[in-house]
Amino acid sequence: MNKQHLDNTPPKGLRVSLFVTCLADLFRPSVAFASIKLLEQAGCEVTVPLQQTCCGQPTYNTGDYESTIPLARQVIETLEPADYVVAPSGSCAGMICHHYPRLLEGEWRDRALQLAAKTFELTTFLSDIAHIKLNGRVPVKLPTVTYHDSCAGLRELGIKDQPRKLLKELCDTQVTELQQTEVCCGFGGTFCVKMPEISGKMVSDKLNNALATNAKILAGGDLGCLLNIAGRATRQGENIEVRHVAELLCGDLDGPAIGEGK
Amino acid sequence: MQQTSETFLENASEAIKDAGKAQRRDILAQFMPPVRDAAINNFENFEALRQHVKKVQQHSLDNLDHYLAQFEQESVRNGNQVHFARDGDEFNSIVLDICQQHSARRIAKGKSMVTEETGLNDFLQRANLDVMETDLGEYIIQQAGETPSHIVGPALHKSAAEIRELFLEKHDLGPRELAETADLVGEARGVLREHFLNAEVGIIGANALIAENGYSMLVTNEGNGDLCANLPRILIICTTMDRVLPRAEDATAMLRLLVRSATGQPQTCYTSYYSGPRREHDTDGPLETHIVLLDNKRSDILASDYHEMLQCIRCGACLNHCPVYASVGGHAYGWVYPGPMGSILTPLLTSLEQSVALPNACTSCGRCAEVCPTDIPLPDLLRDLRHEEAMEKLSSRPWRQGMKMHAWLLRHPRLYHALTAIGIPILHLLGRKRGSFSRLPMADGWTSQRDFPAPQGKTFMQLYKARNKASRTRADD
Fold it and tell me: Which terminus in chain A has less CB density within 10 A, N or C?
């Protein structure tokens, strides 16, 4: 679904509903606050619908469609009044854009498609729709950054250049690319707990490729992958900060990185 | 072939621990994708051809009865005998009958995953026939008593050193070095040449069956298929009925996708069309030709929601791009077809109960679907199989109930936010010093491989509501 052509003018004052995502809500609120800050910097009016919980990927991907359908309807009802819906996660945005229409039928499918047409992952929205600018803010200088392309964002939504472009424009930072960046980190939702050993091999490969870049920070756009990689990094005692790209774009580097102690 | 898909996790664990094989898999996983990409990128409008072939295949499968009948009619007109086999047993019996009618003893066999599926070699060997695989990879694993680990490169799991040891042990050719890879290939060629010349029956597979002229198409890189097809007196072509395409140009269009996706070549070294037995004025070729078409549940697949799986052209690209396949290798999947395509075909061709781990051996990363030359939505089909698993209650009861409870809670936002507002800050307090947990109750799956990062503090919803309340209070003042 290519929505890039929809709107190329900065939507000043447009109402954006933030879909926080369950992982940001529970594990990393700073990602959601950074998202709000960035959207406001891009001139959007941001609201956070309070009825939201989770997009339903865990039950959906585990094959429990019956439990996911009512949840998908709930998400649609919660988010559909917005002009735009933005989520700081490619997989949650992908769930709404691609999988709700596949899961639902009839009137609900139509509503899912309407919601899909106005739902975006954060970096895509900031870069391609809102055309965020520094607006006089001094770019935050970052240490060396490498980037993990999360699978759903990359393949379902075509997120590849957007975060890199934003890091360049807002942080004056060129991403140091890691080998095999488009290969899965082994998270895969429930996959990582169902098949831990295989997942462990995959995340170890991912981490080693990240370490080989000598970057100080590994960034990404999906907390699932980042929790997985950060967990492996602290387990191995590696010295690399794992952070969500929204935090970097905001210059919010004061708090501990994911999985890091105080 | 003894199926071991039920012990997928144990098989995988063993495979991961085998450092030598793991390293070869890693090399392959890094080597193949760029090779395939280069071939696709050098090809003008691959996507258009992909969509075209997919349409042709869907048309062909939608009218399979018609095109199969046409293929049969045309190939019989060319002098072939066509046989239909409902299942593997029937298939093997048909092939054995043909061999026995001609009192054949020696069989030269080309590469065929269909015959792996039916266990043809074992069946013929039990009837005292001498079956020799003639594709180099297949020959190696036959000598080693192993099964293919990859549908295109069956012996990719073996190192040159292992193959050298194997040949020194199996070939009674006196002292020799076999130092170079070329020596290994040369030796296999010598052994196989002898067998080609003595075989009474040749067995090959087919990549496509062409309805309009009754021809079978086969691609190989070694030319062994042509020797199997042309030197012995009898030729048996073994394939499945879903290989039928309406026209010759459809087969060549498919071929352009197949070879680039499989090996990154623009075309294979040999592309052959087999019309039928030797005609009066022909100087060579088999005297009698048979085409044996296997169904083995493919009719059921055609009528099911998994019908797109019949578009699979066995290129192996999904294996080469799958991070799970790269981690565990083909043998872990425990049957004939590994990787993403195998994780769908195995449950469909055997039973979901026996192979329920396979559709779960997927992170939904989507790389397989991205490279699939016939655009099969592999991750969706894998998820649909997991849906069947849930419907048939094949996963454990605590797991299913846990998922249901989780979903129920998510549908009650106030309760969910209230509970997480209690639980998450506690988890934060417990983990804040180190920042993560090395162990957590009921999270062994996670913590066996990595730490569990502690939450940052309160939940976003808590903080956001508090922030809004504060700004409202300020506004009221």
Answer: C
CB spacing of A155 vs B463 below 8 angstroms: no
- In angstroms, the separation between the Cα of residue A189 and the nearest Cα of chain B is 7
Candidates B11, B321, B365: best to mutate against A (most CBs of A within 10 A) is B365
Q: Is the four-CA dihedral B303, B307, B311, B316 of positive or negative sign?
A: negative
Amino acid symbol at B448:
S
Domain span at A50: 15-129
Instruction: Give the DSSP letter of residue B288.
Output: E
DSSP string, B225-265: HHHHHHSSSEEEEEEEGGGEESSHHHHHHHHHHHHHHHHS-
Place of tokens 């899912």: A112
Position A64 in a domain: yes
Q: Is A53 on the interface with B (CB under 8 A)?
A: yes
Chain A residues in contact with B446 (beta carbon < 8 A): 192-193, 196, 231
Which of A234, A243, A247, A262 is the best residue to mutate to test the B interface, defined by the most B CB atoms within 10 Å of its own CB? A234
For residue A201, the chain B residues in CB contact (below 8 A) are 16, 22, 327
Instruction: Name the 3-class secondary structure at A1.
Output: coil
Residue in B271, B319, B341 with CA at minimum distance from that of residue B117: B341
**B438: chain A residues, CB-CB within 8 Å:** 235
Name every residue whose Cβ is closer than 8 Å to that of residue A139 and which is 6 or more positions away in sequence. A170, A171, A172
Same domain for A26 and A121, yes or no, is: yes
Closest CA relative to residue A78, chosen from A17, A35, A122: A17
Q: CA B432, B437, B440 angle in degrees (round to 5)?
A: 125
Report the length, in residues, of chain B: 477
Asked if residue A75 is part of any domain, the answer here is yes
Per-residue pLDDT of chain A (262 residues; tens, 9 = 90+): 445 444 445 546 789 999 999 999 999 999 999 999 999 999 999 999 999 999 999 999 999 999 999 999 999 999 999 999 999 999 999 999 999 999 999 999 999 999 999 999 999 999 999 999 988 778 888 999 999 999 999 999 999 999 999 999 999 999 999 999 999 999 999 999 999 999 999 999 999 999 999 999 999 999 999 999 999 999 999 999 999 999 999 998 989 999 999 7
Cα distances (Å, whole numbers) of residue B330 to B36, B266, B337, B369: 20, 26, 8, 19
**Yes or no, beta carbons of B450 and A231 under 8 Å apart:** yes
The tally of CA atoms less than 13 A away on the side-chain side of residue A16 is: 30
ipTM: 0.95
A235/B363 Cβ within 8 A = no
DSSP symbol at B335: S
Q: What is the rounded CA–CA span in Å between residue B1 and residue B338?
A: 14
Residue type, A75: V
Smallest CA-to-CA distance from B92 within B185, B197, B1 is with: B1
The answer to whether A198 faces chain B, any CB pair under 8 Å, is yes
Element (H, E) at B106: strand B106-109
Closest approach of B252 to chain A, Cα-based (Å)? 29
Whole-angstrom Cα distance, residue A155 to residue A183? 11
* pTM (two decimals): 0.96
- Closest residue of chain B to A184, computed from CA coordinates: B365
Q: Do B363 and A191 touch (CB under 8 A)?
A: yes
- Residues A119, A51 share a domain: yes
Residues 171-190 of chain A whose Cβ lies under 8 A from any Cβ of chain B: 180, 182-184, 186-189
Q: Are residues A124 and A229 in the same domain?
A: no
Q: Where are the alpha helices (DSSP H) in chain A?
A: 22-27, 29-41, 57-61, 65-79, 90-94, 100-103, 106-117, 122-124, 151, 157, 161-171, 191-194, 196-211, 223-236, 245-250
Q: How many domains does chain A have?
A: 2
